[in-house]
Amino acid sequence: MQQAQKTRDKVSMRQLVMIYIITGFSPAIRFLPAFTAQVAKEAGWISPVAALIPIGLTVFFLHSVFSKTKDKSTFEVTTDILGKYASAFILFIHLIWVLFLLGYYVRLHGERLASTLFPNVNMTFFIVIILAITSFILRSGATAIARMGEFITPILLLLYAFISAFLLPNVRADALLPVYFNDAIPIIKASVGTLSLFSYAFIIFMFSSMITSKEKTAIIMIKAGSVYFLMLIILLIMSIGLLGSAVTARASNPFLIIVKQISILDTIENIESLVIAMWLLSDAMMIVTLALVALNIMKCLFKLSDQRNLINILFVFIYIFSLGIASNRFQMDLFASSIIIYLNTFIGYGTPALLYVVGKARQKI
Amino acid sequence: MKRFFVFSIFLVLIFMLTGCSQLMRNRAEIDRIFNTRIVAIDKLEENKVLYTISTKAAVPNTQQQGTIQRTSEFLVSEGTTVFEAARNMAQYAHRRPHYGHTEFIIFGEDTAKAGILPYLDFISRNQEFRYNAKIYIIQGYSANSFITSVSTESIFLADRLSILEDNSFAQSRSGKVTLSEALFILSKDNVATFLPVIIVAPSKEGPNSTDGAYDLILKSYAVFKEDKLQDFLNEELSRGVNWVKDRTQSGTILVDAPDKKKVSLEIIQSKTSIKPYMDESGLQCTIGIKFNTNIAESLSSEDIFTIEVLESLKQQQEEQVETEVKKILSYAQERNMDIFGLVSNFSMKYPMMKNELRENWPQLFPEIKFNVEIDSNINRTYLIKDPATSK
């Protein structure tokens, strides 16, 4: 039983970062261009650069914490470093946070489809479908999901490169420039958006209790982080460079607007279905990943032998929570820009820093 | 067994969901969709909006059994806002309007004078529209009367506009401006927008023309201060805009041979560079234009391919372009309308001062000293060298 469970949970670091790239795609296209354009205007595209130092530090912390813990799960590592009660407290905070994010992302999935494609369709319809599909996927276990991620990532990156190749040549320089030292403060403020997107780096380690090749944490995370970082910069250049910062800041989904403009030799158009496929995949992976993390934390906190029995209960809870989290899209957007990004940044960067500092102080790492 | 059960449920769902018309209220069969290609908006009195959409429909041919014929179709409705007008249309429309294929957004002259931004809000917000739809202003007409009077059975208006747009390169006196570009410029403070103008003229083919009594001419640009139409540029000024904005693709320049007979030059390539700078005397800007032409026609019987004559032709074409550019620059400065978005050029050159430049641009723009530098070359001619009139 124990052996079977381990086989179902075995995931490599490489697979983990691939899942990270897929899950990060959907929130990036939804939130980042509008947020950075609002805060830093035409200089918004350069804001991810300002986030590099905290991101680099977090990778260093994560590498220091996990690289020498070959056979230990994330929960065992945190217990080793922080002690039993502090570790349980940290895990509990993460559980609340992840459940909250789950409800938020499920609701956003429905909201986005209703505001961009099917305005007259009841959003609950999309929520029920995505929850049904993701709960079905979840039962197959972390290993199967990680393999699915390994298969989807190259397709997603290829589609993104294809779309970028058609959009980048039309970018207007006067929409992206000038950027000068007097933009430094707005750029730093806008970098919170990028920081928020990179903040799930720690919780991805709770995706499975059996992560292999952790000794290569730094190098693998740097490689994947570079790909994701490049994706973000290109996304911002395309959105702000084609629509201008004022229109991008006002748009609820600037990336979809610019993709709808693609016309290949005046013959091939309407390729936004590609983007929709990409974001649906990304949404599904995000929900599956967060649900798996939540189940793993619950398994650890409540000492369960198998967390699969909790899937149905969890999804009923998420369904109710996602409908009650806000009464409309405007509240969701306000919620994201005023609470979620700061909470993400605080928890996502605070935990690795705390583990590193305490681990060093107690000579556990 | 379990897998088979789950698979069966999905299979059944796939077939059953196709009939979920209650759930997917926006869904319609393709033959019940009105695929809009032109949207026309007019402001009526008492703040009402007249909303017209047009498409090309295929209807059964009454004269030839079993065949179909293409015809122009319109839907017109009225409302207090564009959205209300669009929804009022549904009360009588025989098909559901869909805007995903809208290519042209048209405003009449009066509406453009009152301001187009309130009407662009619905279009830019609606999830079906594409931002690469093109915007046109109709001189002397309302958008509705333009669509209804110009469309004929044999030629559909959107097709005619499409052809005009494709051919606009020939004289570079107008061009296309997409919704995306228009929104980008309209969102900038102190930058004036220009949009292409179409005029309706009696058909040159005469009253026996089968395609109706009107010709459409993609004539020039209309200039806007904020979102309100200020003026229609003449053709020379419009080409000046294209020179400065580096939008010139081709065109003709007529120059004189030594015997005063006309020589037609065809613009082949052009490149404009804008170099802003600042000194004690204030803001200055050098507009450099490099272009090449070919000799497309010569009415002269003399040999025009001598170095002296070619040099004279080159000088004449440069003078003409310089005149066009200087005229549009002084036109813009006299009216204090930065049609060229020069505030961005100066901001890029002097990024430290971008806020001051943007705030004080209405005072700074009319005072800019322009220096126009033209450099051209006559490359070649085509199949024959000597003029047809030579002996």
Give the key terms:
heterodimer, A: 365 residues, mainly alpha, Amino acid/polyamine transporter I, two-stranded parallel sheet, globular, B: 391 residues, alpha/beta, GMP Synthetase, Chain A, domain 3, four-stranded mixed beta sheet, 11 helices, 31% helix, 32% strand
SS elements, strand count of chain B? 14
- The oligomeric state of the chains shown is heterodimer
Question: What is the residue-averaged pLDDT of chain B?
Answer: 87
> What is the radius of gyration of chain B?
26 Å
Order of helices and strands of chain A: HEHHHHHHHHHEHHHHHH
Please characterize this protein's 3D structure.
- The complex is a heterodimer of chains A (365) and B (391).
- The longest helix of chain A has 33 residues, at 84-116.
- The model of chain A has no long low-confidence stretch (mean pLDDT 89).
- Chain A has a single domain, classed as Amino acid/polyamine transporter I.
- Chain A has a two-stranded parallel ribbon.
- Chain A has helices at 2-9, 13-40, 47-50, 52-66, 74-82, 84-116, 123-138, 142-167, 173-176, 184-198, 217-243, 245-250, 254-259, 272-301, 311-324, 329-361; strands at residues 10-12, 210-212.
- In chain A, 50% of the residues are buried.
- Chain A has 16 helices and two strands.
- Chain A is globular, with a radius of gyration of 20 Å.
- In chain B, the strands form three sheets. Chain B has an eight-stranded mixed sheet with strand order 4-3-2-6-7-8-9-10.
- Chain B starts with a helix and ends in a 10-residue tail after the last strand.
- Chain B is globular.
- Chain B has helices at residues 2-17, 82-89, 109-114, 117-125, 143-150, 157-167, 179-186, 235-244, 307-334, 342-349, 354-364, and strands at 33-35, 38-43, 49-60, 68-79, 96-98, 104-108, 134-138, 193-202, 214-225, 228-232, 252-256, 262-279, 282-298, 369-381.
- The interface between A and B is medium-sized, with 31 and 26 residues.
